[in-house]
């Protein structure tokens, strides 16, 4: 029994020893393999770790999501591009990205360049139908039968009577010559001719001869029919022979003189048809042809006059009435020009670019191309060089394409050579301060941000009034207040593309304000003011105002005849670029609510 127990104990110990040895041999090797596998798996995760970056500050690199430490935007994952078979300088966009960025494209076409030119002017008398009614008899004005401006006179109507001692003497000479007319008829005829030189008719002379009494006063008859536009004398005045006593105008035909600005002169020419309206005659439209265009420009107003001759039926058109007209103008010798929408073009004043669309098996791609622009056609541009008919370009959402290109280190508006994206706050595909025609779409905005932007606008109005007053010192101090209000705007309240757009606008706004604050030259301040307004327009259009209405106004003669915009709280034009010199020059272009 004891022998069996010992045998069992030995067998159990042997089995345990075998298991322990097997674990040491095989289990240790298995543990090492698991550790190696875990290490390799961790290494793979580190090697393939998702890197998070900021769309506006690509120098930011983090291993986990969060907010950008510079601007507060949400970080996005950094993805490697796989553009096999695609031009490395092109920017690829998925259909979803294009839809989110509201990108639209169109085929480039050619057309005869036509521009609608708006003209403002006044009705004036036809200079060829304005007459000076003079007194043909020297003497004293005894009576005026037409004694106020605006009265109508008929040809042959008696308009005044004059007492003339010289005429009395001439009549007495006629009576003496009549006595000897049989013997000296030439003397008699000469006496009659002397009276005729004073515009006395044959019937009047016969009446004098029949009465055999010299008349002391003589009637002056109107030489033409028309309206008295100026009365030169009063009863009791002495007038010389040939001196004007009335100015009479025939208003059956009138001129409408339109102002043509320098920038519009290439488009307006003699023979163009003008359709115009008169403010005091609502609902009626008139038309005429330009019969004359001033060969010189007025040095003060910087405009030339375009004359339209109009038959004045019913005498509806009265001198000094205001007229607003349009001309469908064509550029000569420019048939079949390449024309693109302004929304397709991005520019800084020196460079102009468009984005060409191409498609491959991998998807849609856009490539930047520089173009040379010709004259503007309202909402379009003539492209002189860089595009051909039939090519496809982006006509909306170009800012988003350019921002994506810059972020990817590829050629873009502000970085034509490509390379790493720019750092700091000057990002995006365009200089907002110089591109007034880029389309701006409103976005859903945090009410707090809108309220802060409205505060900037209210301070801006004070600065604008200082420009109207041409007070450089006050402009500088008011610009400081605008700058403080601008720096109080919390950009973290914006997300995504709206945040990117605001940062781009903010760069221009701050730059222009700094230049205004540091200058005491009103003209240099006004140049920066023009740049500020272009960027500020994009801000107000995109983010709106809080219970405010802004009138976006324009003067084509401002900014050295390049044209400039500004905002006003009222529709009344008070030009901040010229002040009192040309206070009313400008027009309302848009109302932002």
Task: Describe, in plain words, how this protein is organized in 3D.
This protein is an alpha+beta fold and 593 residues long. It folds into 5 domains: 49 residues; 96 residues, conserved putative lor/sdh protein from methanococcus maripaludis s2 fold, CATH 2.40.420.20; 90 residues, Beta Barrel (Elongation Factor Tu (Ef-tu), domain 3); 123 residues, RNA polymerase II/Efflux pump adaptor protein, barrel-sandwich hybrid domain (OB fold (Dihydrolipoamide Acetyltransferase, E2P), Beta Barrel), CATH 2.40.50; 146 residues, no CATH class. 31% of the residues lie in helices and 28% in strands. The strands form 8 sheets. The protein has a 6-stranded antiparallel β-barrel. A 4-stranded antiparallel β-sheet has the order 3-23-22-21. Strands 5-20-25-24 form a 4-stranded antiparallel β-sheet, with no helix packed on it. A hairpin with a 2-residue loop joins strand 22 and strand 23. Helix 8 runs antiparallel to helix 9. The protein is elongated. The termini are far apart. The relative contact order is 0.10. The N terminus is likely disordered.
Put simply, the count of helices is: 11
> pLDDT below 50 for ≥5 consecutive residues: which ranges?
1-47, 80-84, 420-439
Major sheet summary line: 6 strands, antiparallel, barrel
Tally of structural domains = 5
Gyration radius (Cα, Å) is 43 Å
Arrangement of strands in the largest sheet: 6-15-18-17-16-19
- What is the terminal-to-terminal distance? 109 Å
Mean pLDDT comes to 79
Shape: elongated
Structural class: alpha+beta
Helix content: 25-40%
């Amino acid at each position: 029994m004891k022998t069996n127990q010992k045998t069992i104990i030995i067998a159990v110990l042997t089995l345990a020893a075998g298991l322990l040895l097997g674990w040491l041999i095989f289990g240790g090797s298995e543990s090492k393999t698991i550790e190696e596998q875990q290490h390799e798996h961790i290494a793979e995760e580190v090697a393939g770790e998702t890197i998070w970056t900021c769309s506006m500050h690509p120098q930011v690199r983090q291993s986990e999501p969060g907010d950008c430490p510079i601007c507060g935007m949400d970080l996005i994952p950094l993805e490697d591009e796989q553009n096999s078979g695609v031009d490395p300088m092109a920017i690829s966009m998925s259909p979803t990205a294009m839809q989110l960025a509201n990108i639209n494209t169109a085929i480039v076409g050619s057309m005869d360049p036509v521009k609608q030119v708006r003209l403002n002017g006044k009705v004036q008398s036809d200079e060829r139908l304005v007459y000076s009614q003079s007194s043909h008899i020297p003497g004293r004005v005894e009576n005026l039968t037409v004694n106020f401006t605006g009265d109508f006179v008929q040809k042959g109507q008696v308009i005044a009577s004059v007492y003339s001692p010289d005429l009395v003497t001439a009549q007495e000479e006629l009576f003496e010559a009549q006595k000897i007319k049989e013997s000296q008829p030439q003397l008699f005829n000469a006496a009659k001719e002397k009276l005729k030189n004073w515009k006395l008719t044959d019937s009047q002379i016969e009446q004098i001869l029949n009465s055999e009494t010299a008349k002391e006063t003589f009637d002056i008859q109107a030489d033409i029919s028309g309206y008295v536009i100026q009365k030169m004398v009063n009863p009791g005045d002495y007038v010389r022979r040939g001196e004007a006593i009335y100015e009479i105008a025939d208003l059956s035909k009138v001129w409408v003189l339109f102002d043509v600005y320098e920038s519009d002169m290439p488009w307006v020419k003699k023979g163009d048809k003008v359709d115009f309206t008169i403010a005091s005659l609502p609902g009626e439209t008139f038309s005429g042809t330009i019969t004359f265009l001033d060969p010189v420009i007025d040095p003060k107003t910087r405009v030339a006059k375009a004359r339209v001759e109009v038959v004045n039926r019913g005498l509806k058109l009265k001198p000094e009435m205001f007229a607003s007209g349009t001309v469908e103008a064509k550029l000569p010798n420019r048939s079949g020009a390449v024309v693109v929408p302004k929304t397709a073009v991005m520019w800084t004043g020196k460079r102009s670019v468009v984005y060409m669309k191409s498609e491959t098996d991998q998807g849609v791609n856009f490539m930047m191309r520089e173009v040379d622009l010709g004259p503007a056609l309202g909402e379009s541009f003539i492209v002189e060089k860089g595009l051909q008919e039939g090519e496809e370009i982006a006509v909306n959402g170009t800012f988003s394409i350019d921002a994506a290109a810059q972020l990817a280190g590829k050629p873009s508006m502000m970085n034509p050579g490509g390379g790493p994206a720019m750092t700091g706050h000057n990002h995006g595909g365009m200089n907002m301060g110089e591109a007034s025609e880029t389309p701006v779409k409103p976005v859903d905005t945090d009410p707090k941000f809108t309220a802060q932007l409205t505060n900037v606008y209210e301070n801006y109005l004070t600065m604008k009034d200082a420009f109207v007053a041409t007070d450089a010192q006050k402009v500088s101090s008011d610009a400081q207040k605008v700058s403080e209000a601008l720096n109080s705007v919390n950009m973290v309240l914006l997300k995504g593309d709206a945040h990117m757009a605001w940062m781009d606008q903010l760069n221009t706004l701050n730059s222009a304000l700094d230049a205004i604050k540091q200058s005491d030259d009103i003209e240099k301040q006004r140049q920066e003011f023009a740049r500020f307004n272009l960027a500020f327009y994009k801000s107000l259009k995109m983010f709106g105002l809080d219970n405010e209405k802004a009138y976006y106004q324009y003067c084509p003669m401002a900014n050295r005849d390049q044209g400039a915009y500004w905002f006003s709280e009222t529709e009344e034009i008070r030009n901040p670029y010229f002040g009192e010199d040309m206070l009313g020059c400008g027009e309302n272009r848009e109302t932002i609510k």
